[in-house]
Amino acid sequence: MTNLNFLHEPALLQTLQVRFQQDLIYTYSGIVLVSVNPFKSLPYLYDASTLELYRGQQLGQLDPHLFAVAEESYQCLCRTLQSQSIIISGESGAGKTVSAKFVMRYLAISCGTDVKQSSGNVEDQILASNPILEAFGNSKTTRNDNSSRFGKFMQLQLSEKKVISGAVIRTYLLEKSRIVTHASQERNYHIFYQLLEGLDSNKKEAWKLTNCGDYRYTNQGITFFPSKIMTLYTNKGVAHVPDVDDNKDFLSVA
């Protein structure tokens, strides 16, 4: 965008719109990567062949991409031997959580891991932490079906061999009030709905659990009608979110 003849807001917005219409959701503005949420799946952007394409490349040599930013950060660390930071910011629904996952995935796979310093595969452990963080810290809001209701600082630790030896994830500012109160058309944290949907019938009976429509902590966002309440099993209201499989997600957490 810094190469535009006219560098003003309308030109910037038109550039983003034209690229967005071609599924080019990433655009450079100097060293900053601007990302536009496509609100659809673009798996070819993040597959193994694309990841391999960006390994060892300098920023700007290939099309704008999250992987390019992650690779530049890694190369700077190796070159300067100083810690590097990638800041991901934006409004709710912009795609920060998904972007962070892809950055961590790239670094975990591209850098490799030092298994001698770990009780298991560090790469798998890092990637496996995402479902747990999202289950206990994300929820549906009116603007985003998977909105992070907390802040997080994710730190990847590299050994002298420049491979990942561990990771630390610090969380802060959890929106605890959501546990007892959430607005209409919103949900509580995912874990409650995953638990009620994913548990087998025997455990639900033993623990005296029923459905999300029966509990105040999980039904405040469901639309009430004079004669009945829309529950999870009607596929209406917000207890059930389209394209979200609470049962499958619960298995990932478990």
TrEMBL record:
<dbReference type="InterPro" id="IPR027417">
    <property type="entry name" value="P-loop_NTPase"/>
</dbReference>
<comment type="similarity">
    <text>Belongs to the TRAFAC class myosin-kinesin ATPase superfamily. Myosin family.</text>
</comment>
<feature type="domain" description="Myosin motor">
    <location>
        <begin position="1"/>
        <end position="254"/>
    </location>
</feature>
<dbReference type="GO" id="GO:0007015">
    <property type="term" value="P:actin filament organization"/>
</dbReference>
<keyword id="KW-0067">ATP-binding</keyword>
<dbReference type="GO" id="GO:0051015">
    <property type="term" value="F:actin filament binding"/>
</dbReference>
<keyword id="KW-0505">Motor protein</keyword>
<dbReference type="GO" id="GO:0000146">
    <property type="term" value="F:microfilament motor activity"/>
</dbReference>
<dbReference type="GO" id="GO:0005737">
    <property type="term" value="C:cytoplasm"/>
</dbReference>
<keyword id="KW-0009">Actin-binding</keyword>
<dbReference type="InterPro" id="IPR036961">
    <property type="entry name" value="Kinesin_motor_dom_sf"/>
</dbReference>
<dbReference type="Pfam" id="PF00063">
    <property type="entry name" value="Myosin_head"/>
</dbReference>
<dbReference type="GO" id="GO:0005524">
    <property type="term" value="F:ATP binding"/>
</dbReference>
<dbReference type="InterPro" id="IPR001609">
    <property type="entry name" value="Myosin_head_motor_dom-like"/>
</dbReference>
<keyword id="KW-0547">Nucleotide-binding</keyword>
<dbReference type="GO" id="GO:0016459">
    <property type="term" value="C:myosin complex"/>
</dbReference>
<feature type="binding site">
    <location>
        <begin position="90"/>
        <end position="97"/>
    </location>
    <ligand>
        <name>ATP</name>
    </ligand>
</feature>
<dbReference type="GO" id="GO:0016020">
    <property type="term" value="C:membrane"/>
</dbReference>
<keyword id="KW-0518">Myosin</keyword>
<protein>
    <recommendedName>
        <fullName>Myosin motor domain-containing protein</fullName>
    </recommendedName>
</protein>
